């Protein structure tokens, strides 16, 4: 029987520490080639800005495979609807369907978990101030995740919507977390050791000229489109860029494809995948003054990592003798 797992069950069953551990393991397996996550396939809807993506992954250790169906529809913002919605199908390696999962909570949790894994591997050990550019649903999740890998003393928030930034700051202050709302993205960058860009921007919200030696950036929010980006070419040029998956970055990340097209960098400038750093195949941060940037597109393997936690918690019997 196929399990139907709503977002509420994901929130109840998957803790952030478990998600961080699962995502780190997934990236190690990708680097060790016991798991695979090819670049997403995509199709655009004719006469529309809607794009539909398939994000597949397979893990020979867990014995599971998955496919995430992601709808990226910018025009939904004008309809007061989510711009991205998704569902994740999970099967055994024998092809038996096991679960269909609402992708919303999985995406939010695994995205923040991946940023925490990258921050732990790349940020300076003494990094204490977290800057959040964007105050939407990913912001609180990122604070929760990154506070598990660094001892934060302050959070700095900037959002194009001042009301949203103020609301998030109020929530964090009630929890005893020192929080400052600033008037510009530049202020947030200049006051922070770790910066997370969490916006669906088409144009850069972070400029490389603002960065100082030793900072770490998680570039997270830009949609998977070759003409969308949150960080400018100078930021990419100045940083050691770590990729979640190289194939996806070169297929759909405007953050790296635009500077490549401009000639600001060449492909050799792009550093290793995160899993290669975690396995010690190659270094992440090479010295304390280096600027590091995690190019976070999201991966079907990250989705599968959380799906594996859910399926393992409530395994279903695999049907036998059933023809497709």
Automatic annotation (TrEMBL):
Taxonomy, superkingdom: Bacteria
InterPro entries: NAD(P)-bd_dom_sf (IPR036291), ODC_Mu_crystall (IPR003462), ODC_N (IPR023401)
Name of one Pfam family that matches: OCD_Mu_crystall
The protein's name in its UniProt record: Ornithine cyclodeaminase family protein
Species the sequence originates in: Agromyces tropicus
């Amino acid at each position: 029987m196929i399990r139907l797992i709503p977002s509420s069950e994901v929130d109840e069953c998957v803790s952030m520490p478990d998600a961080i551990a699962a995502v780190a393991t997934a990236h190690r397996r990708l680097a060790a080639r016991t798991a695979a996550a090819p670049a997403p396939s995509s199709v655009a809807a004719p006469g529309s800005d809607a794009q539909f993506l398939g994000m597949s992954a397979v893990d020979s250790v867990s014995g599971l495979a998955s496919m995430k169906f992601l709808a990226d529809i910018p025009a939904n913002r004008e309809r007061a609807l989510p711009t991205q919605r998704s569902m994740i199908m999970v099967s055994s390696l024998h092809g038996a369907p096991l679960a269909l999962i609402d992708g919303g909570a999985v995406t939010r949790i695994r995205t923040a978990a991946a940023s925490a894994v990258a921050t732990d591997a790349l940020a300076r050990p003494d990094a204490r101030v977290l800057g959040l550019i964007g105050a939407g649903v990913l912001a609180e999740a990122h604070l929760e995740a990154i506070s598990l890998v660094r001892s934060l003393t302050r959070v700095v928030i900037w959002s194009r919507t001042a009301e949203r930034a103020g609301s998030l700051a109020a929530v964090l202050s009630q929890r005893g977390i020192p929080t400052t709302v600033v008037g510009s993205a530049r202020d947030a960058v200049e006051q922070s050791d770790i910066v997370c860009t969490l916006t669906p921007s088409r144009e850069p919200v972070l400029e490389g000229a603002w960065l100082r030696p030793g900072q770490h950036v998680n570039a997270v929010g830009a949609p998977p489109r070759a003409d969308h980006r949150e960080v400018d070419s100078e930021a990419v040029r100045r940083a050691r860029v770590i990729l979640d998956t190289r194939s996806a970055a070169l297929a759909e990340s405007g953050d790296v494809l635009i500077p490549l097209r401009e000639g600001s960098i060449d492909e050799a400038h792009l550093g290793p995948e995160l899993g290669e750093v975690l396995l010690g195949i190659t270094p992440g941060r090479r010295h304390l003054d280096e600027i590091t940037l995690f190019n976070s597109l999201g991966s079907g393997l990250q989705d599968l990592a959380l799906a594996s936690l859910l399926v393992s918690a409530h395994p279903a019997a695999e049907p036998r003798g059933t023809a497709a």
